[in-house]
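Morning!

As promised:
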Amino acid sequence: GEEVAQTPKHLVRGEGQKAKLYCAPIKGHSYVFWYQQVLKNEFKFLISFQNENVFDETGMPKERFSAKCLPNSPCSLEIQATKLEDSAVYFCASSPRITNSYEQYFGPGTRLTVT
Amino acid sequence: QKEVEQNSGPLSVPEGAIASLNCTYSDRGSQSFFWYRQYSGKSPELIMFIYSNGDKEDGRFTAQLNKASQYVSLLIRDSQPSDSATYLCAVSPNDYKLSFGAGTTVTVRA
């Protein structure tokens, strides 16, 4: 599609439950990025993919967070055993990454509330 | 020191005036620089990107980049009430991820 799609829009989980978020990049974009926005403006990079390969996962809290981008499927971000501090808006972005073009376009986000 | 720092807001300008937003970054090897606009409760919207030193103009927006000073700015000319939003400076240290500033909230007074 022409826009990054993210589902669900809102997700409420009790502490300790699992949360799974989905992202479909813009058609033709081979790079996908996940960011976490806490407290309105604090963006934190989590992980990036080139097609189905992890490109950079330096931002991922590895013990509870995992992500995948499989062929012909939306990308996913999964949080096992959610904690209160995981409450945030999770944005997915995609990029065409053609020569000299590094712009990232953001989806509408998934608001995760952990209670 | 934060990777990306923006001038603290909020910034209030009258309609029709110029809004000037500043951003500095710490990684001297950064190559790509972006300005995003984020309305409350919405996702960031890319409004400008710049890769080379100098000015880049797009409509009412002008981005300026000075790599020697590690400084990037955004000017919004003829500010409109619809420009009221938070403006995020984002820098790509390695072209694979963005580091964001904390954002500057702009309010355009009618």
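Chain A has a mean pLDDT of 93.

Hope this helps with the figure draft.
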